[in-house]
Every structure is written in C-alpha cells, then in structure tokens.
Amino acid sequence: MFGKTLTEVEKVPKFRFMDLSGKVSLVTGAGRGLGRAYALALAAAGSSVVVNDVDAAAAGETAAAIAAAGGRAVAAPGAVGGSEVAERLAGTAVETFGRLDVLVTNAGVLRDRVLWKMTDDDFDTVVDVHLRGTFTCARAAARRMREQGTGGRLILISSPAGQRGNFGQTNYAAAKAGIVAMARTWALELARSGITVNAVVPVAATEMTRTIPAFAPILDEAERTGGPLPGWLREQEGMGTVEDVAGLIVFLASDAAAEVSGQAVGIGGDRLALWSHPAEKAVALAGGGWSAEAIAASWDTGVGAAPETYGIPAPKAPAS
Known about the structure:
The protein is α/β, with parallel strands linked by helices. It has a single domain (about 15-275), classed as Rossmann fold, CATH 3.40.50. The chain has helices spanning about 35-45, 55-70, 85-95, 120-150, 160-165, 170-190, 215-225, 230-235, 240-255, 290-300, and strands at about 25, 50, 75, 100-105, 150-155, 195-200, 265-270, 270-275. An eight-stranded mixed sheet has the order 3-2-1-4-5-6-7-8, with helices on both faces. Strand 1, helix 1 and strand 2 form a beta-alpha-beta unit.
C-alpha cells in the first residue's frame, strides 16, 4: 500500500487534494479489519494517525506498521463508549501531533440474538460501543476542531443493517441507524464551523461479516481456496476486501470532499452508492382526518399499494 506507483487515475489533477500531509486522524477500532485498513490508508495519504482499539496489542501493531512504512502514528488503546476514553483519545491527538482534523468512528462489537432471546446486556453493550461511542468521540473531536477554527471531518461508520434491518440484530441495526441520523443532525450543527459529517455504509469480508449466515459459506470458500471473492459478489452485493472501502475514507477526509456533508455513502467491492434519505413515499388526504375504517378501506389501493421492502437479501449467485 505504501510507496505504490501512482495509477493513471491518481495522476489526474482533480485528485491533487488527496494529499493529507499535515492532517491528524483518529480512527477507533483500528487494530484489525476495516479500522486497520482505514488507518493504513489515511497514513499512506500523509496523515498522522491516532490508532485506537480495545486490544492494546492490535493497536500497537497497526501503529508500528504505519511507522515502519515511514508514517506517523501513536497507539491509544481503550474501549470507546464513555466520555473519559473519548476525551483521552482526542487529547492524545492534540498532545502528540498538535491538532485533530479527522475522526473515523469504526469501533464496534456484535451480540446477535433474536428479540425474544436478547438480554439487556446484549442490547446495552452494542449500543454503548456503536452509538454512544460514536456520540462521545464525535463530541470530543468537534470541540477540538471548533477550537482550532480550521474545520474538520467526522466520518461515522454505519452498516446496511442500519439502513434495512437484519435478522437477529436488533441492537446493531438500531445503533447503526442512529449513527446515520446523528450524521445528518451534526452536518447541520457543524456546518458553520467548516466541519463535514458523513456516514459510511461499508460492506467487506471481515470476521464480523463472517458471522452473517448468508455470507459465511462464500467467505469460507474464498479463504479455503485462497482465491478472490467472486466477481458477481463484488459487483451485485458490493462485497469485497477491507482495502476496497478505504478509498472512500481518504476521499471524505480530503479537501476534495469539502462540500460533501450529511450523506450516507455505501461502498464495497466494485460498488459505490449514495443511500437515500427517508422521505414520504405516498400521501393520501381525507378531509377531517382518517378513521381506522377509512384507512382499512383505502390501504391496499392507497398509500399501502406498494409497501417498502426490508431486511438484507441473501446473496444469490447468477445462474450459470
């Protein structure tokens, strides 16, 4: 990844703003998987990186890999969720590198169970790390960015589960949906400070996605054979490697994305997508209001004529 030869696309003048030299980034959950890929990509673009992970050894290894490639990084282990860790992470960026310009809230855990089997602890643990951790880290980062007065980037990691729901993921889907809602809200609140806020909806082959029954057999087969993921999976499902996602993080952190805010952007494999905002799909009016009987009589031919789909469809290989 580091020191690679520029491709023809990267030589195009409009990409000159992808240089993140002088910027300082904080990536949570960067010890492995997607978070590690984000940290490495930001460092490759020139940013100094604060590498957070609950696993101190994993955070240290990512920071060491960046340093070995000529970059600047510091490991800052800790479990995100509470304000104390969030403030410490933002403070580490300022104390070590003098400022904080980019925050990527990637840290997360899974506690998958169907509704009637999900415990309070299952729910609270996932919401605390994903939703509260995003809130506390973003608040700490926004305060420092506003003090600096030079703008900044909040890049919040969501999930397709938060956009469509997913079986067995009440806690995870709720947290990831909330993250997109916070991105839209903070984009409004921080606009005057020059701080953009966007949600990223990634899909990649990781140990976390391996726990999803629909994807597990395909990922296991690719790992067994040592070959790449099938082309149809990369194209139709947007499922690829963690490195496939990292380019979007660098773009959103760069000056080229200075006018991009309040968006939910999906990426994975060969696909780049913009998710729509929730909006009224169909509207019907009744003078004096709607009774239950009137709704029942008109539902199938009125606003309920084309109901929305829900859930993440199982991947389906094209017929040979």
